[in-house]
TrEMBL record:
Native source organism of the sequence: Caproiciproducens faecalis
EC number in record: 1.17.4.1
Keywords, in A-Z order: DNA synthesis, Nucleotide-binding
Domain TSCPD: residue ranges: 3-78
Stated name of the protein: ribonucleoside-diphosphate reductase
Amino acid sequence: MYQYKTKGTCSSEIDVDLEGDTVKSVRIIGGCNGNGKGICALVEGMKADEAIRRLKGIKCGFKSTSCPDQLAIALLQAKEQQAHK
């Protein structure tokens, strides 16, 4: 399980569990509960690279990031951590 502290969003943390190159589970702590659960449900079972491609760069209102964008960053970092094991 990789824990990522979010930056610039209402959520405070994203927990990511990868199984190989596939997203096994995601949990977004804080933020919009329904949206967070929806995002998690959509990416579970998806290849991490595909989730990153779809989510990276999404903005929330006038913010420079969003929970989906932060999830893309969390997935990138989780992949890096997994590669160094």
